[in-house]
Amino acid sequence: ENTLRNKSSTSQIKSLKGNVGFSCFPDQVYLKSIYDGFKFTLMVVGEAGIGKSTLINTMFENKIFPSSSEVTTTENIKGVEITSMSADIQDNNVKLHLTVVDTPGFGNYLNNDNHWQPILENIESRFDAFLAQENRVIRSKIVDNRIDALIYFIKPTGHSLRTIDIEFMKRMHAKVNLIPVISKSDTLTQEELTAFKARILADINFHSIQIFKPTIGSFDDPETTMDTKDILNKIPFAVVGSEEYVKREDGNMVRGRAYPWGIIEVDNEKHNDFTQLRKMIIHSHMEELKDYTDTVLYENHRTQKLLSMGHVQDNSVFREYNPAAQLEEERKIHEAKIQKMEAEMNAVFQQKVMEKESKLKQSEEELFSRHKEMKQTLEKQRKELTDKKKQMETSVRPSSPMDKKPKKGLFNLS
Ligand code: GDP
């Protein structure tokens, strides 16, 4: 884990087997990934003892996460640490390389200001490490350590979100798929939970916090659509975790928690939302989580980073997650281009018309003055001619009958 900004990274690779559920992955993705297996990186955030390790172990049906009592006690930690552990889980011959990134120390002090900071830095440093590899000339063997999802554990207080919850989610939502869960939901009654969920959603809405919500695809069959709607209805998931098996009234052993008044079953949809949470992450929306991380969250980070470094974004390579939105964007750009061209053409046309008009006007004026000049010249000539004619008329008088008699003169020889 060379990209981790952590001081005490405990990385362990375990080979585990179980009936986890990712081998029932949607066919296409399954075929694509079957050769090299799946890879998933999950971050968990919440104060010590909130139920993180129990939930992860329950979800992957393996002891991936040592219980907090087995780990160095968080009292020794100053501030927030980042640790990670990996496990190769086998499910019906399909391999999942799972990395769980833990953040011990978060929320454990009286003053928990800025606890989000090392976590945000860690998420961003993973993006940066990926970007550095993408920018290399030889890009084979890119190691992808980006966080695909972050489970944020909300304390089952039954009130509403605390300042630390709101601050954390607001700082994080543009960088990671946020999945808020209410942990240890068995400590609240059904009524308390319903009201708590409503208040949490209202807070999330009020603060414009973007949490991960699976999308219903336009080509999804009715059953898948129903499942996704069912998942959407459960957000924020109220979960119960337990690695223990307890005996039900019918004698069956189930994962759950035993109480004097009865048992709470982990895998029973009527008892809590663990099934939906697990289905979303491991089965139906693992690919969507990875996709969204890659095409939206990482891409935005990359754009900001490059812009801050003085690069100009080349929109032609900008990958938009939503193809319809991308088409719409391209159509708008195209339309704007055409409008600009039209406006430019109009301006050129106007200019040309004006030039022509002024030329015509000019030549008209020239013509007119030439015409005037010519007219004046002609007039002058006419006047001159008239004058001449008059002169001639006065000098050569018409002959009187008397003049018919030849005059005596030099040449008159007769
Ligand atoms: P972590 O420090 O966040 O990893 O918390 P753990 O998973 O180690 O859990 C701390 C304690 O809470 C343990 O005693 C667990 O058995 C208990 N615990 C975990 N999940 C639940 C739950 O869903 N309901 C109840 N009632 N207790 C739980």
UniProtKB/TrEMBL annotation:
Residues 359-414 are annotated as: Disordered. This is Septin-type G domain-containing protein. Residues 359-392 have a biased composition (Basic and acidic residues). Keywords: Cell cycle, Cell division, Coiled coil, GTP-binding, Nucleotide-binding. It holds the Pfam family Septin. GO terms for cellular component: cleavage apparatus septin structure; septin complex. Belongs to the TRAFAC class TrmE-Era-EngA-EngB-Septin-like GTPase superfamily. Septin GTPase family. It comes from Smittium simulii. GO terms for molecular function: GTP binding. InterPro entries: G_SEPTIN_dom, P-loop_NTPase, Septin. Gene3D superfamilies: P-loop containing nucleotide triphosphate hydrolases. One of its GO terms (biological process) is mitotic cytokinesis. Residues 36-308 form the Septin-type G domain.
